[in-house]
Amino acid sequence: MLENSNVSLIMKKIINYSIYLVFIFGILGAGNLAYTEFLHEGTCPKLGVIPACYIIFGCLLIPFVAHIFNKGKVIYFLFTLVALAIATYATMGQLLGNIQCPKMENGFPMCYISFGIFFSLVTLKILQGRKI
After folding, report:
1. SS3 88
2. Pairwise CA distance, residues 103 & 72, whole Å
3. pLDDT at 3
4. Pseudo-torsion of CA 36, 121, 81, 25, nearest 10°?
5. Other C-beta atoms within 10 Å of 126: how many?
6. Given 37, 39, 71, 119, which is the most exposed site by the fewest CB atoms within 10 A?
7. For residue 81, what are the CA distances in angstroms to 86, 92, 118, 122?
8. What is the C-alpha to C-alpha distance for residues 61 and 75, in angstroms, rounded to an integer?
9. pTM for the structure as a whole
10. Are the C-beta atoms of residues 57 and 35 closer than 8 Å to each other?
11. Which residue has the higher pLDDT, 13 or 130?
């Protein structure tokens, strides 16, 4: 039978790898959307003059690098929480009909996916810091 310390170590590894998987999924998706915006301006809604997909992409890359090099939770949470706020705003706007988020080929709004990604990243990082 596994000891508590071994179970804790296994859970922390699972959480850490889960964070990597969520980041990779998000970076690939947001990177593709940002590239599409670069080629065909107007794909993404803008926050001021900056397309939201560029901001979301940056809010994935910067904390991903911070996570890889274990460079502090402040950078990680600063960027993931900013993006979570943007994704929450976009999701609520989409649900209320005030905002049109970019959609997947099947019509599913990508802001819902962004919300799930950043909610997961914040939740997983909080769990990673707790004693399990």
Report:
1. helix
2. 34
3. 64
4. 0
5. 12
6. 39
7. 9, 16, 7, 7
8. 11
9. 0.89
10. no
11. 13
